[in-house]
C-alpha cells in the first residue's frame, strides 16, 4: 500500500507554482488578444485579412492542417504502440491523449475561424454534399474528437477512483473525482467492460486517425493544382502527421518531466526510444517528400515547374530548405547517435520538428494558391503575394495558445501518467479494488 | 376719351406675362430629346412587327428611354392618318408593335406602307415624331433534294406587284441559342427570278436531328427585314450527354451517387453505433453492483 501511496504522491495532479501561473496568464493574454482580433474579423469580414481571390486559404488553413497532424499522435502512442505491445510507452499515453484532444478541438475551431460567415456553420450539415471532401472532413473530425475524448476518459476511470481515495483532505475535489470515476470499484465486470472498451477504442482510432488525415490531404489532392495534384498525398500527410505528433509528445513530455520532476517515470529510456521513433518517422517522411517533389520535377509540366521553382530557388526557397534541412534532416542526423538521444537534445529536436511541421503546412497550402492555371492578371499587385497580416498572426497564435492552455488545464487536473496502469505494470496492487474471482 | 387704367395694371400684366413665360420654360427644362429609330420586320407567313427604339443621351452615354408611349398611325396618299394603336417602350427603350391582323392596314396606290409614330407626353422626354416606309415582300422557302444532297431554296417576291426581287442579299442560317449558325456564305444574292438555292451540310448538329432553318432578308431599304423559318430533319442528331438528372459527383445533395450514400453512411453508422455503445458502456460501469 505504501508503494501505491508513493505512486499517487508522485503522479497526482498538483497545483501550479509561480511559473505555472505565469504560463497560464501569458496564454490567457495571447488568447484575449486573439479574441479581440477575431471580433474585428467577425465584424468586418475576411477582407480584413490578407487573403484574396487567389490565396483564399492562408495561415488559418495551414494552422488547421497542423492541428490535424498533431492530433494523430493519439493514435500513434495510445493505439499503435499499445497494440504492438510496446509497454515502455505507458507513461506517454496520457500526454499523447491530452495533446490529441487539444489539437482536434482546435482544428475544428480553426476551420470556423477561416469561415467568412461562421453563423452559417449549420448549413454545412443542412445543405452539405456528400460528394465534397469538406463534408468528409467535418464528419471524420467530429468522429475523431469523440473517440479521442473516450480514449482519454476510459483509462482515467480507475485513476479517478484512486484520486478520490487520496483526496480526503479536499472534499470538493474528492466529490468531483467520485463523480468522474463513475463508481469505479475495479470489480470484474467493470474491468471486463473497461478492457473491452479500451481495446475497441485502440483499434477503432487507427483507421479513423488515418481517415482524418487522409481526408484532409484529399481536400488538396482532389484538385488538379500543381503541388496538390498527387495520388500520394494521403500517405504523405499521414507520415508528416506522425512526425509532428511525435515531436509534440517529446517536447511536452520533456517540459512536464522537468516541471513535475517525473524523472523516475519519464526516463532517459523514453527519450531514447522516442528519439529512435522520431528518426524512423522522419526518414519515412523524408522519403515521401523526395517522392512528392522528384516525380513532378522529372515530368516538369509548366505549372509544376513554376511551383517547384518557387519552392527550390524562388520566393519560398529559404523557408523550404529550412523546413527540409532544419526540420527533417538535422533531427535525423542528431537523433541517429546515442548522444543525440539524451533528453535535452531530443527535446530540442522535437521542438524544431514541431516548428518545421507548422511551416511545412504553410508551404503546402500557400505557394500552390499563388500559381493558378490561368495567369493572375488585372488585379492589384498585392494579390500576387500573400503575407499574413498581424491580425491573422494574432488569431493564429491565439489558437496555438488555446491548444496549450487546454493541455495545461488538463495536466493540472488529470494525472499526467496513468496511475492505475503504472501500478499494474509495477506489480503494485490496489487493495481497494475488488480482486478477480 | 382716353381710358385711364390704374398704374398697377401694368405691373399685373408684366407679372402675368413673366409667370406664363416661366411656366413654358419650366415645361421644357430638363427634358431629353429621344432619338427614335424604326424598323419593320416580317416573319413569314403573316406576322409583321414594327420595332421602335428610343434612346437619349444620359450621363453614361446613350441609354434606353423607358416608359415612353407612342401612337402608331398609317399615312396614306392623301396625307390622311389612320391611328393603328398605341405601344410603350420597355426598360431598354424598345417597343414592338404587332401589325398583323390590323384593320385599315393597307398599302397605298404604289404598294407602299408608310407608318408614323408620335410619342406621347412624358415628364422626362420631349415629343418626337418619326415615320418609316416599306413595301411588303413574300419570302417562300422549302427543302428540296437533288442527287442525295439537300438544298434550301427561297424565292423573294414583291407582294403588291407579284414580281420577283432580284439582287437581294439573303442569309441562310440555323437557329441557335446565342446567335444563328450561318450556312454557306455570308449571304446569297437572289437571281433574276428572285431565287436562291443553297446546299445543306449533312453534319450540322440538331436536337433529334431537327434543324430550324431560316432564310433572312436583313435591313432592306425597301422591304425591311423578312424572314422565313422552317424545320427539317436534316441534321446530325445530338446525343444528349447531359448528366443533369443523373446521380454524379457534381450533382446537388438530392442526387448524390448511391454508392456514396450507402458506403459512407454504413461506415458512419457502424462507427457512431460503436461509440454510442461505448458511452452506454460507461453507464453500465457506473451501475455495476459487484
Architecture of chain A, CATH level 2?
Up-down Bundle
Give the percentage of residues in beta strands of chain A.
under 5%
User: What CATH first level of the domain at 137-238 in chain B would be assigned?
Assistant: Mainly Beta
Q: What portion of residues of chain B is helical?
A: 10-25%
What's the shape of chain A?
globular
Specify the CATH homologous superfamily of chain A: Formate dehydrogenase/DMSO reductase domain
- CATH homologous superfamily of the domain at 137-238 in chain B? Immunoglobulins
- CATH class category of chain A: Mainly Alpha
The portion of residues assigned to helices of chain A is over 70%
Question: Mean pLDDT of chain A, nearest integer?
Answer: 91
Summarize the largest interface: chains and residue counts.
A-B, 31 and 25 residues
Radius of gyration of chain B: 35 Å
State the order of secondary-structure elements of chain B, H for helix, E for strand: HEEEEEEEEEEEEEEEEEEH
Poorly predicted runs of chain A = none
The count of DSSP E runs of length 2 or more, i.e. the number of strands of chain A, is 0
Number of helices of chain B: 2
Structural class of chain B: alpha+beta
SS class of chain A: mainly alpha
Which architecture name of the domain at 137-238 in chain B does CATH use? Sandwich
Task: Please give a structural write-up.
The complex is a heterodimer of chains A (437) and B (290). Chain A has 437 residues and is an all-alpha fold. In chain A, 72% of the residues lie in helices and 0% in strands. Chain A contains 17 helices and no strands. Chain A has helices at 2-11, 18-44, 59-71, 73-83, 90-113, 121-127, 133-153, 156-165, 171-180, 188-221, 233-260, 268-299, 302-312, 317-335, 343-369, 390-413, 419-426. The radius of gyration of chain A is 23 Å and the shape is globular. The relative contact order of chain A is 0.18. Helices cover 18% and strands 41% of the residues of chain B. Mean pLDDT of chain B is 87; it is low at 20-27. Chain B is of the alpha+beta class and 290 residues long. The relative contact order of chain B is 0.11. At the A-B interface, helix 7 and helix 10 of A face helix 2 of B.
Amino acid at each position: 500500500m505504501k508503494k501505491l501511496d508513493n505512486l499517487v504522491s508522485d503522479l497526482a495532479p498538483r497545483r501550479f507554482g509561480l511559473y505555472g501561473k505565469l504560463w497560464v496568464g501569458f496564454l490567457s493574454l495571447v488568447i484575449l488578444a486573439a479574441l479581440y482580433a477575431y471580433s474585428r474579423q467577425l465584424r468586418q469580414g475576411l477582407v480584413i485579412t490578407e487573403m484574396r481571390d487567389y490565396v483564399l486559404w492562408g495561415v488559418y488553413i495551414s494552422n488547421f492542417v497542423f492541428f490535424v497532424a498533431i492530433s494523430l499522435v493519439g493514435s500513434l502512442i495510445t493505439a499503435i504502440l499499445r497494440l504492438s505491445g510496446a509497454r515502455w510507452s505507458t507513461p506517454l499515453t496520457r500526454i499523447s491523449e491530452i495533446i490529441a484532444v487539444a489539437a482536434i478541438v482546435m482544428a475544428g475551431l480553426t476551420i470556423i475561424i477561416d469561415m467568412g460567415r461562421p453563423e452559417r456553420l449549420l448549413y454545412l450539415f443542412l445543405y452539405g454534399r456528400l460528394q465534397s471532401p469538406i463534408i468528409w472532413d467535418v464528419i471524420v473530425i467530429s468522429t475523431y474528437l469523440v473517440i479521442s475524448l473516450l480514449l482519454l476518459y476510459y483509462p482515467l476511470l480507475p485513476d479517478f477512483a484512486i484520486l478520490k481515495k487520496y483526496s480526503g483532505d479536499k472534499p470538493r475535489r474528492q466529490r468531483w473525482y467520485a463523480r468522474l470515476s463513475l463508481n469505479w470499484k475495479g470489480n470484474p465486470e467493470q474491468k471486463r467492460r473497461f478492457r473491452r472498451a479500451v481495446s475497441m477504442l485502440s483499434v477503432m482510432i487507427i483507421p479513423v486517425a488515418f481517415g482524418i488525415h487522409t481526408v484532409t490531404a484529399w481536400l488538396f489532392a482532389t484538385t488538379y493544382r500543381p503541388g496538390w495534384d498527387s495520388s500520394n498525398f494521403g500517405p504523405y500527410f499521414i507520415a508528416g502527421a506522425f512526425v509532428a505528433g511525435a515531436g509534440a509528445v517529446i517536447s511536452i513530455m520533456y517540459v512536464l518531466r522537468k516541471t513535475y520532476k517525473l524523472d523516475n517515470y519519464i526516463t532517459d529510456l523514453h527519450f531514447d526510444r522516442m528519439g529512435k521513433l522520431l528518426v524512423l518517422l522522419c526518414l519515412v517522411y523524408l522519403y515521401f517528400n523526395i517522392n512528392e517533389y522528384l516525380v513532378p520535377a522529372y515530368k516538369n509540366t509548366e505549372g509544376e515547374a513554376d511551383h517547384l521553382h518557387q519552392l527550390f530557388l524562388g520566393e519560398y526557397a529559404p523557408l523550404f530548405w529550412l523546413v527540409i534541412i532544419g526540420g527533417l534532416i538535422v533531427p535525423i542526423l542528431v537523433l541517429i547517435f546515442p548522444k543525440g538521444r539524451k533528453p535535452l537534445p531530443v527535446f530540442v529536436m522535437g521542438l524544431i520538428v514541431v516548428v518545421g511541421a507548422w511551416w511545412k503546412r504553410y508551404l503546402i497550402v500557400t505557394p500552390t494558391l499563388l500559381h493558378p492555371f490561368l495567369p493572375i492578371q488585372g488585379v492589384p499587385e498585392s494579390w500576387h503575394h500573400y503575407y499574413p497580416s498581424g491580425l491573422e498572426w494574432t488569431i493564429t497564435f491565439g489558437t496555438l495558445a488555446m491548444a496549450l492552455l487546454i493541455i495545461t488545464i488538463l495536466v493540472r487536473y488529470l494525472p499526467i501518467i496513468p496511475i492505475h496502469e503504472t501500478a499494474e505494470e509495477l506489480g503494485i496492487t490496489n487493495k481497494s479494488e475488488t480482486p478477480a474471482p | 376719351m382716353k381710358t385711364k387704367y390704374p398704374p398697377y395694371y401694368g405691373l399685373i400684366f408684366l407679372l402675368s406675362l413673366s409667370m406664363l413665360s416661366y411656366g413654358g420654360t419650366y415645361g421644357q427644362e430638363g427634358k431629353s430629346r429621344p432619338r427614335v429609330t424604326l424598323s419593320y420586320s416580317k416573319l413569314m407567313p403573316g406576322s409583321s412587327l414594327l420595332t421602335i427604339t428610343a434612346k437619349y443621351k444620359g450621363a453614361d452615354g446613350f441609354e434606353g428611354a423607358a416608359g415612353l408611349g407612342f401612337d402608331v398611325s398609317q399615312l396614306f396618299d392623301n396625307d390622311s392618318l389612320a391611328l393603328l394603336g398605341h405601344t410603350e417602350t420597355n426598360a431598354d427603350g424598345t417597343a414592338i408593335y404587332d401589325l398583323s391582323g390590323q384593320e385599315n392596314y393597307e398599302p397605298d396606290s404604289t404598294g407602299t406602307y408608310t407608318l408614323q409614330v408620335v410619342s406621347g407626353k412624358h415628364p422626362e422626354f420631349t415629343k418626337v415624331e418619326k415615320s418609316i416606309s416599306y413595301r411588303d415582300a413574300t419570302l417562300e422557302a422549302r427543302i428540296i433534294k437533288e442527287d442525295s444532297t439537300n438544298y434550301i431554296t427561297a424565292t423573294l417576291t414583291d407582294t403588291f406587284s407579284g414580281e420577283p426581287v432580284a439582287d437581294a442579299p439573303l442569309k441562310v442560317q440555323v437557329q441557335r441559342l446565342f446567335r444563328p449558325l450561318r450556312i454557306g456564305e455570308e449571304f446569297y444574292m437572289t437571281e433574276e427570278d428572285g431565287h436562291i438555292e443553297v446546299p445543306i451540310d449533312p453534319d450540322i448538329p440538331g436536337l433529334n436531328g431537327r434543324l430550324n432553318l431560316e432564310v433572312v432578308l436583313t435591313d432592306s431599304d425597301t422591304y425591311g427585314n423578312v424572314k422565313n423559318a422552317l424545320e427539317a430533319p436534316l441534321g446530325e442528331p445530338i446525343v444528349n450527354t447531359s448528366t443533369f438528372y443523373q446521380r454524379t459527383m457534381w450533382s446537388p445533395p438530392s442526387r448524390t451517387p448511391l454508392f456514396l450514400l450507402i458506403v459512407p453512411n454504413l461506415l458512419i453508422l457502424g462507427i457512431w453505433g460503436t461509440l454510442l455503445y461505448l458511452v452506454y458502456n460507461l453507464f453500465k460501469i457506473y451501475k455495476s453492483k459487484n
